[in-house]
Amino acid sequence: MSRTIVFLAASPSPTSPCMFVANQVAASAERAGVQPVFFSVCDFDASDVFAGRASAPSVARFLDAVGQAEGLVLSTPVYKATYSGALKAVVDLLAADALVGRKALGVATTKLAAHGVDLAAAYRALFAFFRVSWGEALVVLDDEIKVDGSGGTLAADAGARIAQAADALVAK
Ligand SMILES: Cc1cc2nc3c(=O)[nH]c(=O)nc-3n(C[C@H](O)[C@H](O)[C@H](O)COP(=O)(O)O)c2cc1C
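^ thats the input. predicted complex w/ flavin mononucleotide below
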């Protein structure tokens, strides 16, 4: 069976800094032989998510993909000093034991470094709840990343942190 990792992206823009970082992690996983399976919060019908309808097609696809994956990557812009509410609403659809024995990584981009620290603490609590094996959050500052229509560039230190987080994610 092929190795997969589910990515759940909260940013509403496919060309945003946060998506750029998630795509870098995904490309690194792919080079290591692990297939990324991407979901965006925009793929879900909000009424299905808020009503917790596990059998709704988009929700069922997500739950099934997570069930088959060796890990989950959550990717969010920092909103109000934490992860986006839409991301959390989708994560709330997962059963409490859905990630036991799997790996997780939290990714975020943020304007303020202090809110990156708050976000890392929020991911820590979330992953501890799920009893999943997780690495420290990958937080990239807006100042470390420049995204344009054809791609993006990263400060050297941010590139190294992304590579390190991706390596840890796909290590057996
Ligand atoms: C609604 C909204 C709320 C935000 N709240 C914060 C915040 O509390 N702290 C912070 O440092 N940055 C905040 N930001 C900035 C974003 O987290 C940051 O620019 C991020 O890189 C945006 O990523 P995206 O373009 O991929 O969505 C906020 C941005 C928006 C649009």
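The helical segments are 17-31, 46-51, 57-68, 85-91, 113-130, 156-170.
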